[in-house]
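debug: dumping io for the single-chain case to check the tokenizer round-trip. Nothing else runs in this session.
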Amino acid sequence: LSRLTPPPAGRLPIMIGASGPKIGLRLVATYGHAWNTFGSPEEFAAGNGLLNDWCDSVGRDPNEIERTVLNEVHAWIDRWRDYLEAGVDHLLISVAHPFDLSPVERLLADVRG
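debug: decoded output
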């Protein structure tokens, strides 16, 4: 951090994108402030459970790690509630060219009720 000019104003959080059950999730449990992955709500829930197990193994409070999932908006627009129930803190939306934002607007309207 001493080489950064200007230095960070606060802590520099580390987000680790991983899904590997033996190495990737262990690294997240040991060093990560946030975990990013992809996949269905069921895949996320399985990885989330493994991450919690790794946190127990390394003596880390699993609540210290933010949970994020990245997907194309079309892949999960109708399943956002399932992700939240599986433990996701943040949904990261990937929108590809030609950057049609109408699914994002539909998602926002659904979330806002």
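debug: round-trip ok. DSSP finds five helices and four strands in the chain.
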